[in-house]
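Notes from the pairing session

We agreed to fold both candidates in a single pass and log them together. This is the raw record for the first candidate, unedited. Please don't reformat it; downstream parsing expects exactly this layout.

Candidate A
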Amino acid sequence: MARLVSNRTARTAILAAATFAAAFGGLQSLAAQSISGHDSNAPVNYAADRIELQGKQDRVVLSGNVDVTQAGLRVRAAQTVVDFTDAGSLKIQRITATGGVLVTRGDETARGDVAIYDFNRRIITMVGNATLRRGKDTLNAGRFVIDLNSGVSAAEGGRVSGTFSAPKNN
């Protein structure tokens, strides 16, 4: 029950912060406004110092300066595990990045200890010391969940904090 109340409290805080920002600065959502149109069907390109195919487990492990891109979305990390299915052709199911994860798209950056990109659900989850930045605006939380279908993002886990820029009046 305490976890449910905590999640409700976090969601209420996010809603309140968004309402405050809209009323006093016209700030758009920090997280998924521009990422909501992301093409998760676009080809995925990758580079790393080492690549290991683990065929029996249907995964590829990329390690050392991993750089993964897809349609303007870029993920950099120390290690990335790519889970796939092989039913005649390879289909990526999930990418799990660990170690100093940096996700960028346009002027948005997200940092965290772990990032999970679920291709089936079209959801990106950042966990551990998660920070989201657009321009001078920031959002900090234990965890971010970005829904690429709806463009809705949630920040939760511990205390959520951030900074919104106020518009300059002439």
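Candidate B (folded immediately after A)
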Amino acid sequence: MKENKNVTIGGASIAPNSRKQVHIKLPRLYDYTEMTIPVKVMRGKKEGPRLFVSAAIHGDEINGVEVIKRLLHHPDLKSTQDICGTLVLVPIVNVFGYNNKSRYLPDRRDLNRCFPGHYQGPLASQLAYTFMEEIVKKCTHGIDLHTGAVRRTNIPQIRACLDQGETQELAQAFNAPVIINAQLRDGSLREAARELNIPMLLFEGGEALRFDDYAIDTALRGILNVMREIGMIKTTHEKEEGTKPIFIARTSHWVRAPQSGSLQSFVKVGDTVKKKQILGVISDPFGYHATRVESPLNGMIIGATTLPLINTGDASFHIATFEDLKEHEQFNDQRYGPISKVT
């Protein structure tokens, strides 16, 4: 067995078989208020994988904050002696946006387009650099928790590069309802982790500035599943009977509003839809000039707007496509109730 040495994060040394709360310093605000990233580190007695779980890279995506809170107090993590390796929990990465209930930083930059960052760059770049140096580069695996944007909701899903063997195995072990083979975006945390050969999953579920218990519970179970998969904790129970199947989406497509008005939606996230099926109707305030919104393909609604007031071109329904639609229809009936029928 390898010698289990101390780990240093944010200038604090964390010994094996211990847990410590750390505050990583960030640039001050212009009124000279100090800002820090709160981190909780749990280290097992034995050496093993080092997994980071992060949330609120977008400051208004708060579901992940609650996920990490519940994970920290989960019975399977009651004692550090139950852990093999190191668990690094970062509930609020973008502390600037979180305190402003905003997706962005004060400079209006999207943190998830600024990785790996630079120590002499703009505020977002400095924050990205600090997170990479203090957290990501000191870990072997990662899970980043997200939600839909403001006024959009997502079904719980994993987004990952499935061409990387271990990443695909972790995605399937997570056991979310849907896995999306998502391409990397420039400046994203996933791209920066990929450059370091760190297997990483991105979880999406619920919507911004709202707690969604189903999404939170799915994420919590998924993180524990991944920890079991990589040998950080032991499996304490057999796989539950009737565990929902996983569906892998190869592509996804946003359906955009063909006109402005108010949207009456006929489907919800989790519904299976057929090509040319009517997803909703947009009309003016008197109910005239009604235009149908049709699905351009067969698939599943994995995301949708929660605001019925629509402008032309607004993203309204996010549809993922699967290899076996009939198999998914059976899953839909079991998990979400009957498929919506539109006549």
